[in-house]
Specification:
With 332 residues, the chain is of the alpha/beta class. The chain has one domain: D-Maltodextrin-Binding Protein, domain 2 (3-Layer(aba) Sandwich), CATH 3.40.190. The protein is built from 14 helices and eleven strands. The protein is globular, with a radius of gyration of 22 Å. This is TRAP transporter substrate-binding protein. It comes from Roseateles hydrophilus.
Length: 332
């Protein structure tokens, strides 16, 4: 009789007689599952669930299924989602405008120059600045160099005149398009394809993997391999959620994310090269490679943006980025 009462009391305790519910991490992003970011998010999910023995369940929501560009950051701060991987341009509107240093045109001569910034003191410091916003920055995911697209060739700077070009919400990107003579249009990534279809915008910048998966090449007759900018993401979590995790779970997730980051950065270049080859093979878009003279004209038009943005980004931030990237500013 006594044993029966003890058993009944034990079963009445919260959680008794059933497995503990897993910790759920909702991971939202705005691009397709078969992009470098999409694949890295799925890799993180698999690693996180395996390394925590099922104590964590990661739910990945791609293609703006939950939130659009402007909405997702607020959702993270409110705890409606736990993890995001927004592009670095998204942190300016949040109040950490120094992240827009990554948008400076022609700052990075190659991928190694970009990684020297993200993997160095400046990259770490920028992630730390997110903590005041209730956000914990965990890693940078690369997605390679940006190209331009439109329905007319973009070779000369004058070719941009009057074009409505979609950009992310970045003052640096706004200044970049204006320096080229274009009219910048801030727009959520999920709205871009329809905007191109309806003529709301005339063109955009982006990386080949996003152009292919969103079928942008079906709507744009010309693409210029300008490599003028670089697209990357910061993997971030709600700080209160992250700090509240059991220490062993957090350690396991850290390890899973490190491995997913190595994977993301390893596939970025090859994925974009493959996407570019597929776009070429489609025959729907003509690719343009700038001549040295044309490229120099683009640089001359865009270098003033660096000086113009000094007051916004701070000279110390720009100098640190220049030093890490090995960038030499023009003397004039």
């Amino acid at each position: 009789m006594q044993r029966r009462h003890l058993l009944a009391a034990a079963l009445a305790l919260p959680g008794a007689g059933r497995a503990q519910a897993p910790i759920v991490i909702k991971f939202s992003h705005v691009v397709a599952p078969d992009t470098p970011k999409g694949k890295a998010a799925l890799r993180f999910k698999a690693l996180a669930e395996a390394r925590t023995g099922g104590r964590v369940r990661v739910e990945v929501y791609p293609d703006s299924q939950l939130y659009k560009d402007k909405e997702e950051m607020e959702a993270l701060q409110l705890g409606s989602v736990q993890m995001l991987a927004p592009s670095l341009a998204k942190f300016g509107p949040l109040g950490v405008k120094e992240f827009e240093v990554f948008d400076l045109p022609f700052l990075f001569k190659d991928t190694e120059a970009f990684r020297a910034v993200t993997d160095g003191p400046l990259g770490a410091e920028l992630l730390r600045r997110l903590e005041a916003k209730g956000i914990k920055g965990l890693a940078y995911w690369d997605n390679g160099f940006q190209i331009m697209s439109a329905n007319r060739p973009l070779r000369q700077v004058s070719d941009f005149k009057g074009l409505k070009m979609r950009i992310q919400s970045s003052k640096v990107l706004d200044a970049q398009m204006r320096a080229l003579g274009a009219i910048p249009q801030v727009m959520a990534f999920s709205e871009l394809r329809q905007a191109l279809q309806t003529g709301l915008v005339d063109g955009t910048e982006g990386v080949p993997s996003n152009f292919l998966t969103q079928k942008i090449h079906e709507l744009q007759k010309h693409m210029t391999l300008s490599n003028h900018g670089h697209l990357a993401y910061a993997v971030i979590v709600n700080k209160k959620f992250w700090d509240g995790l059991p220490a062993d779970v957090r350690t396991a997730l850290d390890g899973a994310l490190k491995e997913a980051t190595t994977y993301a950065n390893a596939i970025a270049s090859t994925e974009n090269e493959a996407a570019l080859a597929s776009i070429r093979a489609s025959g729907r878009t003509r690719m343009h490679t700038l001549t040295p003279a044309e490229l120099e004209a683009w640089r001359e038009a865009l270098m003033p943006v660096h000086q113009e943005m000094t007051s916004r980004l701070g000279q110390a931030t720009i100098t640190a980025a220049y030093r890490a990237a090995g960038f030499v500013a023009p003397s004039r």
